[in-house]
Amino acid sequence: MPLLLGVFETPNKVVEVIGRLRNRGYEDLDVFSPAPFPAVEDALIDKPSRVRLWTLIGGLAGVTTGFAMTIWMSLDWPIVVGGKELASIPPYVVIGFELTILFGGLLTLVGLAVHAGLPHGKFGKNDVGYSARFSAEDFGLTVRCKERDVVEVDALLRAFNAKEVSLVEP
Amino acid sequence: MTPPPAASVADMIRPVPLVADSQVNRDILAVMDRPTMPYWLLLGFLVVFVHAAGAVWVYQVYKGLGIAGYAHPIFWGVYIVTFVFWVGIAHAGTLISAILYLFRSKWRNAINRSAEAMTVFAVLTAAQFLGIHVGRIWKSYFILPYPNQRGLWVNFKSPLVWDTFAISTYGTISALFLFVGLIPDFAIARDRSTGWRKVLYTALALGWEGKSKQWKAWNRTVLHLSGLCTPLVLSVHSVVSWDFAMSIVPTWHATIFAPYFVAGAIFSGFAMVLTMMIPVRRIFGLEAYITEYHFDNMGKFILLTSLIVGYSYVMEFFIAWYSGNEFEQTAWWYRVFGPYWISTWTMLICNTMIPQLLWFKRVRTHVPTLFAVSIFVNIGMWFERYVIIVIGLSHEYDPAVWGIYTPRPAELMILAGSFAFFAMFFVIFIKLFPVIAVSEMKELAIHRKSHAHEGAH
Amino acid sequence: MPELDRRDFLKLVGVGAGAAAAAGCSDPVEKLIPYVVQPDIITPGIPVYYASTCRECPAGCGLHVKTREGRPIKLEGNPEHPVNKGSLCARGQAGLGRTYHPDRFPGPMLRGSDGKLAPISWKDATELVATKLRGGAGGAYLLGSDPGPTASGVLDKWVAAVGAGGRIVYEPFAPEALVEAAQLVFGNASEPVFDLSKADLVVSFANDFLETWVSPVEHARQLAEARDISAHPEGGARFVYFGPRLSMTASSSDEWIPARPGSEGILAMALARVVLENGGGSASERALLAGVLDGFDAERAAARTGVDAKTIERVGKALAKAKAPIALPPAGGFASNRARAATAAVLVLNQLTGAVGKTLALLPLPSDGKRASYKELLALVDSMKSGKVSVLLVHGADPAYSMPQTTDFADALTKVPFVVSFASSTDETSALAHLILPEHTPLESWGDAQPRAGVRSVLQPAVRPLQDTQALIDALLDIGRAVSPEVAAKLPTGSFRTLLEAAWSDADFRQVLQRGGVFAEKSGPASASLSPGVAKLGVADPVLEGEGDYVLLALPSPLLYDGRGANLPWLQEIPDPVTKIVWQSWLEVSHETAQKLGLVAGDVVVIETGGQRRAEVPVVPRGGIRNDVVALAVGQGHTQGLYASRELERGVNDPQGKRLYPLPENAGRQVARGVNVISLLAAATDEAGGRAWLTTKAKLTKAGRSERVAFTGANDNMRERMLGEAITLSDLVAGKSVVDPEMLGLAASVKERLQDAARRGEEMTPPAGVPAEALTRNGELIAFNPADDAKPGSPYRWGMSIDLDRCTGCSACVAACYLENNVPIVGEEQSIRGRIMSWLRLERYVTDGDIDYVGGRPPHSTLERLGHVGVRHLPMLCQHCGSAPCEPVCPVFATYHNPEGLNGMVYNRCIGTRYCSNNCPYKVRRFNYFDYSLETWPEPMKLMLNPDVTVRCQGVMEKCTYCAQRVEFARQPAKNEKRLIRDGEVTPACAQSCPTQAITFGNLKDADSQVAKKASDPKRGYHALHVLNTRPATTYLAKVVRGPVEV
């Protein structure tokens, strides 16, 4: 199936055209955007990102590890210092806290990798339609459609004053 | 100085054909232009200096800590002072990127990248001193809870173990935060570079194309990391302060220490951001991006934290007097009028009096003055730690063993080396990575542009 | 010297008990192999003790030499010996180092024409001396210290046989005046022996009997007995000290009366007069003294002595009233050219107060043995100058150092064609000798000593000689025999050992060797009468040379004594008990003097005492010295010796090329370490020709430069911090406690902790120093019991109690700790930086009770004031706290609380964060700044290390362990016998050496143990820095302030 690429200058146009395309039943859309624009992203993907789950899991794992490790290690070879309890919780809160952050952070990164699909593509190869202009200030909207719809989509993109429209994949 | 013409960057960052590249890209990436001779000289000097200091340290390991100024009962000196100093410096970065991010204060965009980088390098520098100051560095791995034949773990009740965890966590998370923020900018650099840089950035960009699902995940990640960093940044210096507050040393054993240290850390951190960014802005012509507006805001922050720190000083003195505790009173008396009075007064003047200038907008926006103030604050904050640590240990409970500590050449050399170490990384950084978050700047630029379009309609 | 390794040593064993057959010498072997044939008296790991006698000073204390695998590693007192009863002073402890000293001569040495020493065989050396003697032995003289009765007898025989000119015994601080005065006062030759233990009033006339006078260890013990607060609830003996300076001895007194130096005789006379007026003495004595005593009425005496008349009256009355008073004559540095008269006056005072027979025994002079005589020595010096001396044989003395410059002894020595020195290690005299025939060190020698009539003490070797040395007597006998057959015939046959055994034939020699001697204490006559001689006593002010404004006191140093201790690094590094200065010379001046001359501590002054005699020395201003007096300790100023001089720091003349700290900045510095005050003194003698030390006035001028003084005590102002506490006798009698319940109440944490304890149902017994009502004030528990701080199951909680009322500050414990625990020596430069390593330090605080506050805070400056005592000597060591602040802060568990309550320190685990020391309020932890194990013990000193104690490596912390190795040593036998370690079975080195037994160690869980009893003293017991709630296992018993004597 052919792939059309429309180049836009402002995010709000992209949002609008996405809306229209969807009404017309075009679902296979994607956007190259030079900077984060929640409006654009939400227009394409309506569910909130799953990354937050990873953070939660990491955090919980961290706090558990923190306390389990400190308490177990204190009891594994009991050594009395300063007449204090062997497993005294207050000092261990610090360890528990630090590990919460550490694990939480690391798993968040994993989450990013998974949900953003990073690393993406083959080394040094970009997706069809991507070009350096999209890391400048242009927005690229790719639409995959049947041959017979190409004309309509093209017109539609131009209607939302796309700078240019090209058929990047016949 | 105006941004250099595109021609001069042709060999490295090539303007993309067909379409005009964005002004933002060109300006910021211009900083990564091929290094000039002065740059190489500076970098060379730093590298050599770091190695000189390293040699001194090797000699110390061989001969023993006796070549430092330690004398019973003052067993912590310049090394720990400098450790705390650098940890403090490390705070501004995360604060700017995380906390200000949560507060959605966009003005941070211009400075957060360099601030984050500073954080990472400062933590790196600070970590060195944990090793430098111990008596038997070749056994320092004992401090990690690893399984061993002795079946012996570490003492999690010791603030030094907390330190180990806090510092390593902080280092990891802030490095991670820096990297995540850099990914889109790597993509930009990738699209505009050739040769080995192309390979490097392609690898680092992880195939970033600014697709919606990438941005969506990225946004969420940055949000969560900010959420994690905010308590972390507050905790790290609290933990460092507990190294002292948990002990029974008069003038150390105080509940005010955690907030007091955190405020001090932000104070010194912001000062260091200014000290580093003002020259960079000047040399690489980023006036368009780092504006008076930013300096004004940072000035306000420094003023605020200076007041908090000042308040802590006053409160400590007051409590020492009010408690009627002989140990505290005497220790404080020595702090101000004793043999170390110079350090104490340097601290008071640099940290509480000089920053008062920042009440005036003219000072906050007058860059050279601001630079001078930031230098004073850096000095003052180093001396604050010196005063707390050294004087505290000098006059403890048993008058028969009160002591005096004087730093020895070895310590001062390694102290100087730590600045070179830090600067070295930063200097390498500005030539390799965008010193300003390009995509975030662009976000603003495009917003402005599209609003202009609306207006046109 | 030949490399000596462990195996050689294992072979060098058993010399003592005649197992010498097992010994043999071979090339060093570097393998560690077990015995092939194990000597029957050696069990590896089990120490063997040899009874012997200490030769560090003439007191003659009994020794137990502790040897391990054939090496002496520690000296301890012989409990059976009547002189020291098991204790040993710092000098005695350090004496161990002589045997292993790097300065020892490897063997006989002959000085060549180039002035350098070259080895020579014993045979040739002997022949050489013999030839010198063949040509007119009349010019040959023996000069040396008293080698003990038997040796002394042999020497006399030798002199006679060879036909030598004579033999002179030289002892710099010999109490010659005492015997002369006794002769004068009581009319018969006798040796006055003072026993303080039965006294109820001790009056010292500038007599530092706790430091250097006749028998310091014995006197310290006696004083402690006489003042033991448990035996004498009313306070026991009062102690008045007349003297210009607050010396270590004076700091133990109840009343320090700063009298003018040299006025002691006058004081004694004035007091005698008061005593007579108050019914002392017999009618005849009154008659006899009537003429002598007028002119000595209180008023006139006051004018001459600087002591006001009322005080004289008061003390005199107290003397008259006292049942068993004792007056001690001026001695040491206070012997003036009127020493005999002054001493006689004091003896008269003793007679009038009825001390004779009670506290003062007039013992017959030892029959055998020759007494030191300064008169003869001066005569010898003259004949040396006039070239009448052809051969001079010097042994056991260092006259070239210790003779006043004005006697030109050094020049006189150069006039002697042939000088032989028997010194075993280099000193000033041997440096001028032509031939050196090194003798054994005392630990390698046979011999005997006679501290006083009836007490005979033996020396036996504890190790085979490390170097190619010979016993003095054997060397001389060989020489004599070599002179000619006639001479040989006249000489006794056999070796010195056989002669010694013969001399002891009246006793079972084996038993003697086991017990250390024969101790048949003699008691003098129950009473004595004054001889008519006292009528012409001739008490007067001493004549002082020099035109300065200050009297120069040259005082024997409590540690270096007359300088013979200076080459022993421990004695150099143990702080002076008064000023806490190490490794240096300093001039003590009063604050007023310092102000007048515009001097602060460390400023150098030029001392001039007339003639060419001048020296430059830094001053140390203090409140405890009269304004018209300056004091400079004898002992420093050596130009020879690795530690005695500065050679070590200059990095030269170190036999093994091993150095503590080679310091280039010292390259240009003079070789002498400090100043030899003797070189400043005029050569004066007393009426009977005895040596006078108080002879000179000094002129001080500012030198305009200053030196860093090696202070090791920062501040002697205690600032009411509950460190060295004291309680007045009246409070004690009234049943008050030294611990102020309010003070305890301040420690809120204590309350909480103990409420928790109560909630957990642990019972709280009244701890040390806490009055019962303080236990539950407002129904709250506010105190603890150290015995609780061990593992519940454990039968032991080791603890210690230190009685500050018995501590005199003598520092014996410090020396013992150094030698028992292989504590490194760091040297002068490092000491100045505050890097002394001692595990046990003596803190000296000065207070007169109520501190006058300045701005709500005690003044920083010292509180030492003229005429105020208020000194607290505080032995500070690891307190082994129940809740030790050092433990929780260590990240790696290098320090922790062991089940028996000890605060353990694991060197192997320590990574050197030094947090533990920062958090230790007592600051008893030390850090290894360098690798001292390599630098402190040059060969062969390594051989004297205690094998039971690890030598610590660079970068780790170390501290007092309560001598854990000794606890472990006692544990095994207890285990074998299926019993607990008994009380008294474990004694740490410090407690073992303490002359006054101020330190008690034991199990706090055993309620009957000595330490438990002492530690639970409800009135005097307290814990240092109690408010910190560290729950220390060390309990201090407060010093008792008895106050001035009243009538």
Entry keywords:
heterotrimer, B: about 450 residues, mainly alpha, 15 helices, disordered N terminus, C: about 1050 residues, alpha/beta, Dimethylsulfoxide Reductase, domain 2, Barwin-like endoglucanases, Alpha-Beta Plaits, seven-stranded mixed sheet, six-stranded mixed beta barrel, 34 helices, about 15% strand
Can you walk me through this structure?
- The complex is a heterotrimer of chains A (170), B (457) and C (1047).
- Chain A has helices at 11-23, 38-44, 51-76, 89-115, 150-159, and strands at 3-8, 29-32, 139-144, 164-169.
- Chain A has 170 residues and is of the alpha+beta class.
- In chain A, α1 packs parallel to α2 (38-44) and α3 runs antiparallel to α4.
- The N and C termini of chain A lie close together (7 Å).
- With 457 residues, chain B is mainly alpha-helical.
- In chain B, 71% of the residues lie in helices and 0% in strands.
- Chain B has 15 helices and no strands.
- In chain B, α2 (37-63) runs antiparallel to α14, α4 crosses α5 (159-192) and α4 (109-133) packs antiparallel against α14.
- The two termini of chain B are 37 Å apart.
- Chain C is an alpha/beta fold and 1047 residues long.
- Chain C contains 34 helices and 41 strands.
- In chain C, the strands form 13 sheets. Chain C has a 7-stranded mixed β-sheet, sandwiched between helices.
- In chain C, α16 links the parallel β15 (418-421) and β16.
- The chains are: A alpha+beta (170), B mainly alpha (457), C alpha/beta (1047).
- Chains in contact: A-B, A-C, B-C.
- The interface between A and B is large, with 70 and 72 residues.
Please tally the helical runs of chain A, counting DSSP H or I stretches of 4 or more residues: 5
Helix content range of the residues of chain A, please?
40-55%
DSSP strand content of chain A: 5-15%
Structural category of chain B is mainly alpha
Topology order of chain B in helix (H) and strand (E) letters? HHHHHHHHHHHHHHH
Let me know the average pLDDT of chain A.
Answer: 91
Strand content of chain B is under 5%
End-to-end separation of chain A: 7 Å
* Biggest sheet record of chain A: 4 strands, antiparallel
